[in-house]
């Protein structure tokens, strides 16, 4: 398994420096990660540091709590597209899930998807699986599975619980085959990353990406 191909090398802390972005991007290019995931204000910077490489630039929308107004998320999406983001990791309204307001959630995704698809950008929907019941996760799989998204993503990394093998398996059971899975939150070593991929994840959001890849090399995988 060449695990580097699965990784979104990530830094999203509020104190992120330009030097942090440069280091992130240099590592992503060196290790040939799938993408870097950076705060919206660093999209242009990341594009500069990853030019002439295959590394995509992803950013976050409505991050990390998801309760921004639909109009605010739409503005964030538009700005991210203008700045050159290749992929958008969108936190949907977690509060609406907990309040069983599926009409709001359908309205939210229906407002965001047209502009994203018109501009041929990848979209990953973050549902924060660690704070949801299995029934809520299944309903999310059903709603977003038919919405045209590319990935359903487990976590922001800011909740008390991140990615789990169980959540990824539940996603895979209830999502249509064409919708991929991104696991993120608390992935710090190769063994856990490998388990998540075996459970069905096709992308991993990690800040410990270099350690994970070096852990794979230590096991002699490549």
Automatic annotation (TrEMBL):
Biochemical pathway? Carbohydrate degradation; 2-deoxy-D-ribose 1-phosphate degradation; D-glyceraldehyde 3-phosphate and acetaldehyde from 2-deoxy-alpha-D-ribose 1-phosphate: step 2/2
**InterPro entries, from UniProt?**
Aldolase_TIM, DeoC, DeoC/FbaB/LacD_aldolase, DeoC_typeI
Which is an annotated GO molecular function term of this record?
deoxyribose-phosphate aldolase activity
* Gene3D superfamilies hit by this protein: Aldolase class I
| Main localization category | cytoplasm
Reactions that this protein is recorded to catalyse:
2-deoxy-D-ribose 5-phosphate = D-glyceraldehyde 3-phosphate + acetaldehyde
Task: Name the keywords, alphabetized.
Answer: Cytoplasm, Lyase, Schiff base
Looking at the record's lineage, which domain of life comes first? Bacteria
**Where is it localised?**
Cytoplasm
For the keyword Cytoplasm, the answer is: yes
Residues annotated as catalytic: 89, 153, 182
* Enzyme type, top EC level: lyase
Give the enzyme's EC designation.
4.1.2.4
The similarity comment for this entry is: Belongs to the DeoC/FbaB aldolase family. DeoC type 1 subfamily.
Could you tell me what this protein does? Catalyzes a reversible aldol reaction between acetaldehyde and D-glyceraldehyde 3-phosphate to generate 2-deoxy-D-ribose 5-phosphate.
Name of the protein this chain belongs to: Deoxyribose-phosphate aldolase
